[in-house]
Amino acid sequence: MAPMTRAPRTTDDVQRTGRRFLAVSAAGALNTANARKPFGRRGRVGTFTFFPGWLTSELPLHVIGWQALATAGFVKRGALRSKEGWLGLGLSAASWYALREVWKTSMQAGEVFDHALEEGLGDELDEGESPMAPHPEVELTRRRLVQGPLHNWRKGYVSGPSLSYGDAGRRNQLDIWKRPDLPLDAGAPVLLQVHGGGWVIGNKDQQAMPLMAHLADRGWVCVSINYRLSPRATWPDHIVDVKRAIAWVKANIADHGGDPDFVCITGGSAGGHLSSLAALSANEPEFQPGFEEADTSVRAAVPFYGVYDWTNRDGTGLASMEGMLARVVLKSKLADDRDRWEQASTMSWVGPDAPPFFVVHGTNDGLVPVEQARSFVAMLRAESKQPVAYAELPGAQHAFEVFDSPRTIYSSGAVHRFLEAVRVREGHTADTADTAEATR
Questions:
Q1: Residues contacting residue 380 through CB under 8 Å, at least 6 positions apart
Q2: Which of 54, 150, 175, 436 is most open to solvent, judged by the fewest CB atoms within 10 Å of its CB?
Q3: Of 398, 404, 412, 416, which one is the catalytic site residue?
């Protein structure tokens, strides 16, 4: 029997393959272009371009691999026997080069964070007087970068069931993150994490896990919380829950190895709003109904890509956000209820008694304009008596630090250094690095 041979592809087949390859390559190149510079950062355009731009800007090497596999498949099917196929190959090559530049930009995050800490902490970095903790090891390992969003951080640091801090069921639960071998009398510093999600979605299991794992591994105790969400909840339910969680931490964290006298707070997006507002409105009775006497102050705040103003007082916010807030969150119009909108805005609370702040935002943020972060930082620096550090990351989208990427890993190290500096400034000199090493 004669060996079977594959029938030669017809001219029409080759042209169709070439056109398909060109279409796929064009789509990939457009996605890469959006990752480098979003097609829009305001309004609906910013919302629609966010998701693909976010994934691509944090996973550029993964995208190169995927595009290369697709290219190999089309080449095998004869795409390069047509003009369209060669044009598609050219677009793919240009996309790979641009993705390489995206990667190189992300690798600059370490320098950006170093500069931000030096600028924000100022004279306290003088030689011989430096409050900075030694640079933690930045583990840009191949395994972490390949795993990206697939890493299961909770497994190593969260044990036991979620704990209740209020009476709102699942929405008033929290998790304790710590090293399994951390002594119960460690007196470790504490970081409380507030998730984002536009005040309407999200939970304690979705965000800041690389950061909490980084700190827990270095002797910290971290607490991630749920809180009530709209439309079922109406403002100020959200901030009341955050305040209630802070009060719970101060009353109970010593039982889990934490220091109730050194509690800091962080969060991203809506969590950036809530964490920054909580930090600036310490012990505000209107946000603490039924527990007005509880101490809800924090030692430092680290908001990521937060919303700092609901009134858009200086034009740096999204005008489109007002309608959503009015319908879903506050359930009142700004024009009719301005005092409550002002009270809900972080910018309204900026003053000399603000705790130390480390604000982080990306230049490519398509959901919360970076201009609002700049405005908020300028207000803080003009009013606060405490250090204000600001890291503006070139090429970073909203939610950039949700999973492992170079920016995520560098940001975890930078937040650790900032919080350790605050500890030294305030006389909390116990070395968590030594504590962690002693328990290994």
A1: 350, 354, 357, 359, 388
A2: 150
A3: 398
